[in-house]
């Protein structure tokens, strides 16, 4: 193929293009905008771990080493007091222990705001 054939092929390709266009005019059309994601709705599907904390005790290493099978360690929570509900380790409310069939359950008595809808989109 010689230069004349190349020029002819190029002329054929450019035949339908109007004059006066720059490179921006020849660029591919912009992709359609993506639909906005509903972040609060997506977050509702994320699995979390819900735990009920009975209480805690601060002990020395010596006291820890002295603990035996029948040892009793007093906790900082009073008997009958609602226990702390935690989601992934973060306190979110209080609950009481109940029996649900053959398992323990929790009855919520206080709950902090878990409003996922308040997050910005």
Automatic annotation (TrEMBL):
Coiled coil: none annotated. It is found in: Cell membrane. Residues 43-111 form the Flagellar motor switch protein FliN-like C-terminal domain. This is Flagellar motor switch protein FliN. It is a peripheral membrane protein. Belongs to the FliN/MopA/SpaO family. Gene3D superfamilies: SpoA-like (2.30.330.10). Keywords: Cell membrane, Cell projection, Chemotaxis, Cilium, Flagellar rotation, Flagellum, Membrane. It comes from Aquincola tertiaricarbonis.
């Amino acid at each position: 193929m010689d230069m004349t054939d190349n020029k002819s092929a190029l002329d054929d390709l450019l035949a339908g293009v109007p004059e006066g266009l720059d490179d921006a005019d020849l660029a591919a059309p912009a992709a359609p905008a993506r639909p906005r994601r509903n972040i609060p709705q997506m977050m509702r599907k994320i699995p979390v771990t819900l735990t009920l904390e009975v209480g805690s005790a601060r002990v020395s290493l010596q006291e820890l080493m002295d603990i035996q099978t029948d040892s009793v360690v007093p906790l900082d929570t009073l008997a009958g007091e609602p226990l702390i509900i935690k989601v992934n380790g973060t306190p979110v409310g209080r609950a009481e222990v109940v029996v649900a069939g053959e398992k323990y359950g929790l009855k919520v008595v206080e709950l902090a705001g878990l409003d996922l809808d308040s997050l910005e989109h």
